[in-house]
Amino acid sequence: MTDLSAFPIATRWPASHPDRIQLYSFPTPNGVKVSIALEEIGLPYEAHAVNIGKNESWTPEFLSLNPNGKIPAMIDPDGPGGKPIGLFESGAILLYLTDKTGRLVPADPVRRYETIQWVFFQMASIGPMFGQVGFFHKFAGREIADKRPLARYRDESRRLIGVLETRLKGRSWIMDDDYTIADVSMLGWVRNLIGFYEARELVGFDDFRNVAAWLERGLARPAVQKGLSIPARG
């Protein structure tokens, strides 16, 4: 039987199936990236809900695996050399899963690096900007009288959607006909921007027909539909 006792996080969220990948997450745009990838790839895993509304990501057990205090985090009991490995940061986890399986990334080295650059585009640009739009448009930031921060993040988010719009012209997916971790990394964020964050009109999303069609294609995938609700919020 696989022993996860070296990982304190496994004491707070015990594994029923310690031989499977252990995912510690919550269904946010960053969280669902990994659940979607795991569903697409088909690796067996066990999902544990880390309730960010209750600040569970700031508990000592979670911080022992992810010192950044953000979801998700993951343990693979069958890591390199057959030894368990713990990982945090969703982009790093996506890259690890593709390296482990050869799935969701082009085999050609040049196209692989092109895919990775779009994952980094999400991590460095789309994620932070869309998150700020959510804060200033829907959450506590909307009470701030000075609307310049909202305008700044709105305009930058619109610019970033424009980057995607140009990239997706004549393409089904970010990497042409290859559905990859680049798509996985962004689908949840674009969905949240116009749905949960209620910013569709704010950013003029309907102007971006290529992005809208890409989002519709992505959300129609069974693995995406399932992964968007994993782990269950309870």
TrEMBL record:
Residues 108-234 form the GST C-terminal domain. Residues 18-105 form the GST N-terminal domain. One of its GO terms (molecular function) is peroxidase activity. Its EC number is 1.11.1.-, 1.8.4.-. Gene3D superfamilies: 1.20.1050.10, Glutaredoxin. Keywords: Oxidoreductase, Peroxidase. It is an enzyme of class 1 (oxidoreductase). Belongs to the GST superfamily. This is Disulfide-bond oxidoreductase YfcG.
